[in-house]
Amino acid sequence: MFKKILIANRGEIALRVMWACKELDIKTVAVYSEADRDSLHVRFADQAVCIGPPRSLESYLNIPAIISAAEVTGADAIHPGYGFLSESSYLAEICEACNIKFIGPGPQAIRLMGDKSRAKKAMIKAGVPVVPGSPGVVEDEETATRTAREIGPPLILKASAGGGGRGMRIVRSAEDVAAAFRAAQAEASAAFGVPDVYLEKYVEAPRHIEIQIMADTKGNVVHLGERECSIQRRHQKIVEESPSPVMSDRLRRRMGRTAVEAAAAVQYVNAGTIEFLLDAEGNYYFMEMNTRIQVEHGITELVTGRDLLKEQIRVAAGEPLSFAQKDVVFSGHAIECRINAEDPVTFTPSPGVIRHFHVPGGPGVRVDTFAHDGCEISPYYDSMIAKLMVHGRDRDEAIARMRRCLDMSVVEGIKTNIPLHRRIMDDEDFQAGRLDTKFMERFSARKKAAS
């Protein structure tokens, strides 16, 4: 087992990794930017190293500084959390070269699954259902238009190296493909430094269902059920839950088996998530793989009783999975609300100093956060300040518990999206489980009509 782990991240995920390390009796090293000098992850780490100015490019994305911090402090492993460098094949390669264990998959798997076009080819080869589309990157406007006519509208252009909705265009006519192709290429190039785009059939109003998998170095791969992630704004998740309200035991077995086969096909190791689009007829299609721990991993932990961060660390240390598929038992229902420092109406960021911070407690409540009274929310980083999670015997109890917790949450000094979450919990479609990726559009339209 590792003696010391450097956590190459900040905020609540840095603290979450730290909890796991402390319970495994592993020393921790925090890295921080000048803006995070007084952050809790710095306070609670055994050692802390400043790695640069506030801007991410000069600190949390600064691989030489992170490797230097690991070598200076004698860390024998690095956990990247999520975001920042968590899906950097280069960091994984540098760790290997420096004899530092990267807690995550190998660089080959990260590279393969991080390239959406190559990942899709790999999944087709493995027999995983994919959305009909171009066989790979579309080279020019003429090819894009010809392929669009072959597949038929509606269609979506996606950046091959993309994510978060950037480099993405929906087109409903083959005549519009050329202009959308140019726009998607330009946005992909600006956002990711790679202009490559590919084309797919656009699945109307699907659910976004992701399957959590865990794999070890001995060839064992298991899934830990699904998470419903359909409530999104601009392709950014807002509310997640497990299990999905639409999921049957049979469909879960099918999708879980597919996810396990997908991971095994690319010789995947450690925690990962296979993301699917699920249509109204129960057909599901591979969308992408996230080669890291997810923001919303906590709700899977609540319904399975498994600590995914500890499992990540054990697997990275060469240990076999501590459980088999038959040992994964699902209990109750869990919901997560991402609490962001933003205006709940305009969604503009709201950095500043939190004057008063109170989070609810009680049975079935978990709050992962780095916030506290006097905490400064920086404009340099992601706006999420807390993950409010609840667990109930069933979905109705989980919703009631979340409503209570949102009512009892206090954040003064900045604006948050807590009022938005409260309205979602009261929404009839949400309560009935009528969810798809267009939920927020309908929700906003109903709110606007009501006002």
Number of strands: 20
Q: In percent terms, what proportion of residues is strand?
A: 15-25%
Please tell me the CATH architecture of the largest domain by its name.
2-Layer Sandwich
Name of the top-level CATH class of the largest domain: Alpha Beta
**Total count of domains:** 3
Low-confidence parts, pLDDT < 50 over ≥5 residues? none
Query: What is the residue-averaged pLDDT?
Result: 95
- Annotated CATH homologous superfamily of the largest domain: ATP-grasp fold, B domain
Distance between the ends = 58 Å
Strand order of the largest sheet: 13-12-9-10-11-14-19-17
Annotation field: number of helices = 15
Q: Whole-number radius of gyration?
A: 22 Å
Largest sheet: 8 strands, antiparallel
Per the CATH scheme, the topology name of the largest domain is D-amino Acid Aminotransferase, Chain A, domain 1
**What share of the residues lie within helices?**
25-40%
The assigned structural class equals alpha+beta
Globally, the shape reads globular
Structural write-up:
The protein has helices at 11-23, 40-44, 63-73, 89-97, 107-114, 116-125, 141-151, 177-192, 249-265, 297-304, 308-316, 395-407, 418-426, 428-432, 439-450; strands at 4-7, 27-33, 47-52, 77-79, 101-102, 155-159, 169-171, 197-201, 207-215, 221-233, 236-242, 270-278, 284-290, 333-340, 352-353, 356-358, 365-369, 376-377, 384-392, 410-412. The model has no long low-confidence stretch (mean pLDDT 95). The strands form five sheets. The protein has an eight-stranded antiparallel sheet, sandwiched between helices. It has a five-stranded parallel sheet with strand order 3-2-1-4-5. Strands 7-6-8 form a three-stranded antiparallel sheet, with helices on one face. The protein contains 15 helices and 20 strands. It is 35% helix and 25% strand. The chain folds into three domains: 4-103, Rossmann fold, CATH 3.40.50.20; 132-201, 2-Layer Sandwich (Dna Ligase, domain 1), CATH 3.30.1490.20; 207-450, D-amino Acid Aminotransferase, Chain A, domain 1 (2-Layer Sandwich). α4 (89-97) packs antiparallel against α5 (107-114), α7 (141-151) packs across α8 and α12 packs antiparallel against α13. It has 451 residues and is an alpha+beta fold. β10 and β11 form a beta hairpin. The longest helix has 17 residues, at 249-265.
